[in-house]
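User: I'm putting together notes for a lab meeting next week and I want to include a structural view of one of the chains we've been expressing. I don't have a solved structure, so I'd like a prediction I can at least talk through. The sequence is below, exactly as it appears in our construct file.
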Amino acid sequence: MLKKTLFVLLSVLILSGVCFAQEDPAKEQMEEKTPAVAQEQPAKEQMEEKTPAVTQEQPALVLEEIHICTAVEDRQPSGVGTVFPEDLDKIYCFTKIEGAEDMTYVHHVWYFENNEIARVKLPVKSISWRTWSSKKLNMLLGNGHVEIVSESGDILGKAEFEIQAAEKAEAVGETEETGVSEETSEAPKEQ
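Assistant: Thanks for the context. Below is the predicted structure for the 191-residue chain, given as C-alpha cells.
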C-alpha cells in the first residue's frame, strides 16, 4: 500500500511538474502573440492614413470666364453684355472651366424671373475647357440669370442678364460696356 501511495504521490508530482513545465511554454506562446497584436496597431494607423487618399475628391472645378452674349464665333463670345433687346432670336452663355483632370460635366441652369426654364448638361473634357449653351428668348421681357453647376451640385458662378424692349436695350447698349474681357476685345468681329 505504501508503494501505491508513493506511486500516486510521485504521479501527482510528475504531473504537476509537467503542468508547470507546460505553463511556461504557454506563457511564451502568449508573449509571442502579444507583439503580433501590438503590430496590428501600426497597420490600422497605416490604413487610416491611406483612407483619405482613396476617398480624395477630384480637384474642384473653377469658373474662369462667364459671359452672356449674342453669338459664339471661333470658340469666343461676341456681343457680350448684360442688357439685350427682345427682338434677338437667342442669347448664349459662354463659360471657360478650369481644373478638370478627368472628363466631367457642368450644367448651365437658365432662370428667367427666378423660374428655372432650362438645364443644359455640358461635358468638360480637359483641364481648360470652353463650352456654351443658348436659349431662345421668345419675346420675354425681364431679368434672368444662368448658374453654372458642377456635377456634384456646387454652384461655380452665375451671370445675370436683362431683356428689354428693343429701343430701350439699344440705348443702354450704346452707353454700357459690361462683361467684356480682354480676350474678347482682341478677337476680330465679323460684320
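A couple of points you could mention at the meeting. The first strand starts at residue 62 and ends at 69. The domain at 62-180 is CATH 2.60.40.10 (Immunoglobulin-like).

User: Perfect, that's what I needed.
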